[in-house]
Amino acid sequence: MHPAFSVLIFTVTSGAGYGLITLLVLAQLAGLPALQDRTLLLAGGGLALLMITVGLLSSTLHLANPKNAWRAFARFRTSWLSREAVFAVLFYPVALLYLFGVYTQGADLNGFFVFCAILAAVLAMVTLFSTSMIYASLKTIRQWCTALTPLNYLVLGLMSGALWLLALQALLQDRLSPALQGTALGLVVLGAVAKLIYLFWIGKPAGATIRTATGFTQASVRLLDAGHSAGTFLTDEFGYTVAANKLLRLRFAMLGLAFLLPLVLLWQGPAIVVLLAALLCMAGLLVERWLFFAEARHVVRLYHGDART
């Protein structure tokens, strides 16, 4: 599949924002001392909303007719895209109410604002899950149609959100919270494991082949004529191909930027180092999301010369 840069920005930044607000709420309600500071809570919530907004706005850039974006809300019962849009809109007023409660009451919230905080965290995770299911529900793309897709979206969103929360806490309080540092380290390790499992799974020789697509399972099948003499929308978007050695180099770059370097830097301690870890992680996740699209193989490729998906 052809990677659209606007979609890469959307999924990475909004995922980090949803992960950040979720961990912010959980840490505050759990009574973590570092998260009982009004300034940190408002800064974290503001950053999360900014990242989510930037991501959602960028998602409209790949639309052929942005004026028709409202149609995304019209198929809630059958479309994960519609569910994502609805939950993303519902998230905003609830999150703003929670932050208003923090602004007026500090970390000691009353029952109503506690409910808003919990609901904001739930809507954040539901929205992120809905985004992942847009891809995981497509049976025509083997690399996406797996439970590993929503698992990776959720884990990587929480991982990047944890790094940003730790960076903010270190910058504003001039020290690292051991609990937040341990959480970030654990999520980085979990994210790396989830991604490696996904890479191993998509590398297995499984899925549809040109023989199963045509029904001639007991014969040798090859394409004689593609039916066109120039590139088409299908070949440009669904037939996107990258050299194997380039994919391998990008995989190593992704693992280093998104997981290995942040893991090493988190042990160092100074706030600027943790901020660098968060920035490197975002760069690595952009590469990860580019690979997520570039390595996906639509079954329509079988009718344009590919032997398997």
TrEMBL record:
<dbReference type="Pfam" id="PF04976">
    <property type="entry name" value="DmsC"/>
</dbReference>
<feature type="transmembrane region" description="Helical">
    <location>
        <begin position="85"/>
        <end position="106"/>
    </location>
</feature>
<keyword id="KW-1133">Transmembrane helix</keyword>
<dbReference type="InterPro" id="IPR007059">
    <property type="entry name" value="DmsC"/>
</dbReference>
<feature type="transmembrane region" description="Helical">
    <location>
        <begin position="7"/>
        <end position="29"/>
    </location>
</feature>
<feature type="transmembrane region" description="Helical">
    <location>
        <begin position="184"/>
        <end position="202"/>
    </location>
</feature>
<feature type="transmembrane region" description="Helical">
    <location>
        <begin position="41"/>
        <end position="64"/>
    </location>
</feature>
<feature type="transmembrane region" description="Helical">
    <location>
        <begin position="112"/>
        <end position="138"/>
    </location>
</feature>
<protein>
    <submittedName>
        <fullName>Dimethyl sulfoxide reductase anchor subunit family protein</fullName>
    </submittedName>
</protein>
<feature type="transmembrane region" description="Helical">
    <location>
        <begin position="150"/>
        <end position="172"/>
    </location>
</feature>
<keyword id="KW-0472">Membrane</keyword>
<keyword id="KW-0812">Transmembrane</keyword>
<feature type="transmembrane region" description="Helical">
    <location>
        <begin position="248"/>
        <end position="267"/>
    </location>
</feature>
<feature type="transmembrane region" description="Helical">
    <location>
        <begin position="273"/>
        <end position="292"/>
    </location>
</feature>
